[in-house]
Amino acid sequence: VVRSLRADFAPEIWAGLGLGQQPAIFTYSEMWVALGVVAANGLLFLVRDNRNAFLLALSLSTAALGLTTGALALQSAGKLSPFTFMVLLGLGMYVPYVAIHTTVFERLVAMTRERGNIGFLMYLADAAGYLGYVAVMLGRGALPQREDFLGLFLDVTQWLLVAAFAAML
User: Which of 43, 89, 122, 153 is surrounded by the fewest CB atoms within 10 Å?
Assistant: First the structure.
């Protein structure tokens, strides 16, 4: 949900952070996020044991959620630049998204030795995410209007981090 909000409302979020007049900054920030996500998740192929890879991917996802929590705390304290904040937020959201959709689901199927593939699990995860996104959009319309999207985005991110940590546990 937060990943989609960040991507779909990037211009509004960057404007709320005071950098809306620099469109190229989105490309630069996403380049660093992509490199970090590929590096973090790509190295998981080195783990041969399915159970260990499964647990490592869950640990990596939990650590990334911690990174997001830290980025939110430092941003609210005024200790992060907007660029660093968005990069850390992107890493903290995309690392678990990719890890769950690939390594966790793949290794879960392999670990349990169930016949099948990860297609259904990916469908369920994506369906839940899109349903949550629709709920946020409908809820946004029901709440008093804010001047900027950034405040809503930060609030939704904080609440969904609590839910994500609970799910990871």
Answer: 43
